[in-house]
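Marked as duplicate of an earlier ticket. Keeping the data here for the record.
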Amino acid sequence: MKNLKIIFGLWLIISICSCEKIDYNDNNPDVENYIETLKLNLYDSLNLPSFTYKEIPTLLKYINETQTISVFPRNPISSYYQLECKLGIYVLWTIESIRAVSINSESLVMNFPSQNSILSLKNVDELILVDNTESHEIASKAYYDWWNNNKSRKFYKFKNIDPLKNTDYRWH
């Protein structure tokens, strides 16, 4: 626990003292700017942006990205400190945040849709985190299909549908 606090403290200091910043406004988010700051590991907010369902089509363009990022918002209540994440998985988690906020999910904490931006197996007795190409591809397809099979409907009519429902995965 002490090591986690030290790592978090160092991360916070580095985030605050970073010399190169890209102007990012949580209250007026722009998907392209968000993605660029994540790719450059320059995202300097502790929060996920306040996107709405209108940004989902643009976010979906990045769900298959495999670049590893290390500077991104993390859920502060999680005891697991995730050092890095694939950009595409993080974008999926961002989309899940939009959905979770819209349904006022019980697991929502500060717009974070779950503890971490990592998939885990569901329907097993123990926690098994999954971070591989196959799970990324399955989750990407599930979110892509969820959106494209429903986009002609009003968002409120399908926001309660869990894109991962018919997969072996859930968000940790």
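See parent ticket for discussion. Residues 3-26 have pLDDT under 50 and may be disordered.
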